[in-house]
Prior knowledge:
Structural class of chain A: alpha/beta
Largest interface: A-B, 44 and 35 residues
Number of domains of chain B: 3
CATH class of the largest domain in chain A: Alpha Beta
Low-confidence stretches of chain B: 12-17, 408-418
Order of helices and strands of chain B: HHEEEEHEEEHEHEHHHHHHHHHHHHH
CATH topology of the largest domain in chain A: Rossmann fold
Shape of chain A: globular
CATH superfamily of the largest domain in chain A: P-loop containing nucleotide triphosphate hydrolases
Structural class of chain B: alpha+beta
CATH topology of the largest domain in chain B: Nucleotidyltransferase, domain 5
Number of domains of chain A: 4
CATH superfamily of the largest domain in chain B: Ribonuclease H-like superfamily/Ribonuclease H
Strand order of the largest sheet of chain A: 1-11-18-17-14-16-15
Strand order of the largest sheet of chain B: 1-2-7-6-5-8-9
Helix content of chain B: 40-55%
Shape of chain B: elongated
Number of helices of chain B: 18
Strand content of chain B: 5-15%
Largest sheet of chain A: 7 strands, mixed
Distance between the termini of chain B: 97 Å
Radius of gyration of chain A: 27 Å
Number of helices of chain A: 24
Mean pLDDT of chain A: 90
Oligomer: heterodimer
Mean pLDDT of chain B: 87
Amino acid sequence: MNLEQMLQHFKASEKMMKNITSWVEMPAKEAVYAEFPDFIDERIRTALERRGVRKLYSHQASAIEAVHDGSSIVVVTPTASGKTMCYNVPVMDAILKDEASRALFLFPTKALSQDQTSELHELITEAGVDVKTFTYDGDTPQSARRAIRQAGHIVVTNPDMLHSGILPHHTKWTKLFENLRFIVIDEVHHYRGVFGSHLANVIRRLRRICDFYGSKPQFICCSATIANPAELASRITGTDIRLIDNNGAPTSGKHIIFYNPPVVNKELGIRKSSMLEAERIAESLIRNGVQTIVFTRSRLNVEVLVTYLKDIYHGSKDGDKRVRGYRGGYLPNLRREIEKGLRDGSITGVVSTNALELGIDIGALEACIICGYPGTIASTWQQAGRAGRRSGVSAAILVANSSPLDQYIINNPDYFFGKTPENGLINPDNLVILYNHMKCAAFELPFEDGEKFGVETTGEILSFMEEARLVRHVGNRWHWMSDVFPSDAISLRSASNENFIIIDISEPKPVVIGETDRFSAPMLLHEEAIYMHEGIQYQVEKLDFDDKKAYVRKVNVDYYTDANLAVDLKVIDVFREDREKPVHRSSGEVSVSSLVTMFKKIKLHTHENIGSGPVTLPELEMHTTSYWVSLPEEIPGMSQTDVQNGLLGISNVLANAAPIYLMCDPGDIRVVHQVRATFTQRPTVYIYDSYPGGVGFSDKLYELHGELFETAASMIAQCGCETGCPSCVGPLTEFTGTGDPKEMSMKLIDIIRNAYK
Amino acid sequence: MDIRSKLGLYRESIEKAPQHVNKTEESDIEVLVPGRVCKNEYGCCYVIENRYSLDYIHGGCEIGTALDIDSDVLAAVGGQDCSGLEAGGLLYLDTETTGLSGGTGTLAFLVGTGFFKDGSYVLRQYFVRDYDEEPAMLAELDELVSGACGLVTFNGKAFDINLLQSRFISNRLRPPFSEMPNIDLLYPSRRVWGQKLESCRLSSLEENVLGQVRHDDIPGALIPSVYFEYLDDRDATEIVRVIKHNELDILSMVSLLVRLQAMLQRPLSETDGGFELLGMGRLFEATGKMDNMVECLEACTDSQRFDVRIQAVKRLTRIYKREGRYDRALEHWKAVESENPGLELFHLVEMAKYFEQKEKDPGKALRIVEKALQICLWAGLSADRSLEELKKRRDRLRKKLHRGADMPQKNGTLHEAD
């Protein structure tokens, strides 16, 4: 059977169809072409023609023209729409017109930068022009670095290298910075939260250095579809950004199918394993020779699924090579081999983590199975975009697991197919992050009096730094006055530089497997905690709190641990508030002190509480931003206990609803409730950023207040359980009294919704 | 809440500024180290100048002898771009900085220079009393450097010049260093003394090569904090030590260059005849002076030390082989063999190759290989890679002889070999 027949077969199967919550046939879309702009160098045009590109897609032409007009832009396109042309062509053109021009390309990962530059190299070779393109990252040999600094027209790197390897040594890059015309930031939607807030500050430093050398680069950004691409790009670059979203790339017809595994335990809301269901569907497709990619969320799952699926070709010649895994940790050569196998069709099935989600060229496959919602709509579309051939039909199947977010998505296809609600959020003015980058900036060039580094309070921060003996104010300048190299101590991937490292001591040679921020450490790394990493369970044997090290050992147990966090939250400052209506909403700055007192062992799948233990760790205090909602002091018809239960239910739902809008992991925010809050004197729910200083979530939630509670309401209403389960208001064991947790939560949510109708 | 209080909350720990001690005027830099304030369009900086007569002795030589250094020697020590330089026009340069890891944010707060002028050696140090004096200091330095024909530094290529270059650019000044020849003494020193000494830092060379011992020298790692403290309290007591340290560094560079000249001109008499001589061989090799190199190595084969002799023979015979002078090579291998060299095998392997490939005498080669194998067995080298190679060689030789056995005329050889 071919794919089309397979789909007919699925449609005819009642067993299959009863689990399918949505089946959308996206029609094929014709390409919208535009002519090459006249100003483009003839050599580029003929090179493209020789490569089969005779016309541009509309978005490519718009992007090239906008850049030509001098604008900084963000191009929003789906997968496989020729977005690299949007920056390769204008950059090459500028270099051909003025040999001195330079460009800097930033990619979030090393693998991606290699892939994207190989395309650029091909175009340069085809055009037979002398445009020197080099990758400059941690792998670049010392001997090559000098030449790259002097002669590279296009320098390809990543934000981390720019931060610690290029900017602090800008005097060695004078050619680049004096002539920098373009800064290309690909996958800009990737830079959100902590990483994005860091990048925005790295760009502030970059622009400061460009100012020094007298260049005024334009930004060319590319983004997947999110709600606020121009806003995000503009916050990151600190520049006005023009949005280019007239995508003219053609698409073939595609079936998008939402599959919800059947419920096996109604009381607990447990469904059949998404892995097994995905495997079953993948197997039937691969058996029929349909080239299929399966995305899973962890490296471990990749290996498990590959083992299952390899059985399909058991005993046949080269069968072992027909189904492959692909994930981070594979060596580059192996990866290249698999990518090639996918392009030439010698591989029928591949199981991957999101490593294949980004622009690596594997051609277009027929079918894509996404095992577990990838966390954001943008990722889901990028993964689904892997299936889709120019001619013929393709299919993407999303298989949900029982987590609240998966269940919400699978049951609300409109949310998925409609206008995306996902916001890429950053907070470049996060004081901790800003302060750290101001140190780097002061190292790079002295600050002048009156100079602004993104914020009005630059001068005050500098005089604070002077007290800390990091800078010295002499004449009208602030000079770096320390023998430390500040960027070395600052990681772009974490908010504070006080991280705990996690060391695996299962093998004789200890290995660092991860790190976590100081404020999560007591929750995740207390002794006896089960720490999950890459789908593997580890138990914490020892936590050295003072040295910020946790020693873990691999285990295989059927439970996870959940620490009881006693949180006290104090409001320090109110930024915005709305107290007109009976329900108040606010956003501001808070101090959160948290103390972990005990932990519970919770059985996997059933969520039964099977044991507990004490935790003795110091109380931690964190300052961050928060959004909060407070209800009237008295709520008719609800006792104190009812309100308590209702608030608890709301908190649990909000913890899952908010990430939908924020493009963050559930762990990036925390929710606490107080029946009578110290600050508001009313029943209050707080959602705060779990990073010191906040990364922009709270302010957005204040604006999204209405939508947020609509979503929370439908999450509860649509849940198939009776009075509450971990997929909606939380496990019943957490509630007290006799009231129905679902009902109590809904009552409170309705009060909030009605107040803002 | 204002930003300062917030910063106070967020910052995990803040180093407190030290208490300002009651500083007296006696500890002013101007009092402790007399100098002059130098003014130019960029401001001013502090300059300390000392003159040394040409017969002043430091590091075992009169520093004036550095005036007569041959341009050939300068090329041998500094590389091709230093040939044709005039020793009298060189500028010796060394910096003291606020950090050792480089990058644009590191200040060279003390730049020491030395040069010959009007019959004496002038040691001029530019001291930046605060950050705002840096541009004036760089402008002064620019003038001085531009008048020189080349630089002499110790690790200046990787550090001092690099760092100054950055500072010129950061202050919007054109660095005067591009294209300027730089005799960086670190590289030849490593070649010459890398094997003999544990460390090739200037202080180690001073002590072990020049016989100059420093008293109360300030450790390099402390220098940044000494300067930061000076900025805070203006007490120059410790800065004086830094200035002295820098002065000695500059003087020692002169002596080191004189020492290298003597060794280059008279390697056999001016070296220890051991590792230093071997090191000279390396220096000659690097500059393409193969005859001088062979001369040094031949002399090393008479060294008292066995390890020097072996190394010399290894490198010498490599050259002889390349030049086809097998007779000379064989002589050395045999000489090694004749002195009962214990576990040393290389000469046996080389001789086996020679007899197999050049003399076409597999029987003799096999005997030598078997001897080498015997040594391996005594020494218990059972898993060594060289053992495997020897076994392979033995088996191949045996096969060769066996094939030869089919031909009647080689019978005898086979017999002999068994």
